[in-house]
């Protein structure tokens, strides 16, 4: 039954608005149905008993309303009203409002109004059922997309966790050092996921928010020791986790060996978009430490756990880094393609 209904013009019009030509054609077909009903009634008139003026008009109204729509049904009902009154209700060939004629036409109006009302209710129920079907399909598609996104994100998270654990084991000097390092790094990943969970529908994390949440454990946020500057830049889910881990390692390195190891040391993070020759546009993130002890190149981010993790994480995002160690303080510059930072950025 549902398959039959969806092919009727009246029901198709509920799913998508018909063109002007289609509407005009529906009215033309409706007039044709009325004409057939009138000709049929005139042909049957010699064989009909008195009291059956509407025998062909009732079906015409129902068929028209059900196939083409209630408006077209009203048109056929209106034309049938006057045709039956004029040709088949005494006095014939007259629209004289006699008591008998008015009583007969009142019955006709009651029946066709009831028929058209029932057709309207059927169409309304069909519309509600179609909208419910569409909504259920939309929700099913949305659940499927969310399931695929969750699966993809979990795989990325477990891959990052595996790399962190393997590197932590390799570079830990004791079980206590291993436990502490893992707690800190997994906490950084947890904060990045909390940042993503706090976003509303169609919202995206910003690079500044990622930096703030990554450096929050070091007590820099909201103090003069941290300076942030750069354009508003949206960051996708996987890039949030990667940047959180990288910035956490930079902060940990600064706390152990650099500017954050002394009370007056400062850190500035500057980012900008830039074009690279023969390469796609990238985001440039400059980490600069000042006020700490002179850095030693063999330590910190240049070698060991931090350097290895930084290299591996950047590789997953097709990025690279440049580390320098002037006497004023360590400087690390990250380059990440905009497409890996957020596929929506053009």
What's the alpha carbon Rg, rounded to whole Å? 38 Å
* Shape assignment: rod-shaped
Helix content, binned percent: 55-70%
Mean pLDDT across all residues, rounded?
79
Termini gap: 48 Å
Range of strand content? 5-15%
Strand order of the largest sheet: 2-4-5-7-6
| Structural class label | alpha+beta
Task: Please describe what this structure looks like.
Helices cover 61% and strands 11% of the residues. The chain has 346 residues and is an alpha+beta fold. The chain has a 5-stranded mixed beta sheet. A two-stranded antiparallel sheet has the order 1-3. Helix 3 packs parallel to helix 5 (70-88).
Question: Would you summarize the structure shown here?
Answer:
With 346 residues, the chain is of the alpha+beta class. The protein has helices at residues 2-5, 9-15, 20-44, 57-68, 70-88, 99-171, 175-197, 207-215, 237-257, 304-316, 338-341; strands at 205-206, 226-229, 234-235, 266-274, 282-290, 320-324, 331-337. It contains 11 helices and 7 strands.
Q: Can you lay out the helices and strands and say which pair or pack?
A:
Layout: H1 2-5, H2 9-15, H3 20-44, H4 57-68, H5 70-88, H6 99-171, H7 175-197, E1 205-206, H8 207-215, E2 226-229, E3 234-235, H9 237-257, E4 266-274, E5 282-290, H10 304-316, E6 320-324, E7 331-337, H11 338-341
Parallel strand pairs: 2-4
Antiparallel strand pairs: 1-3, 4-5, 5-7, 6-7
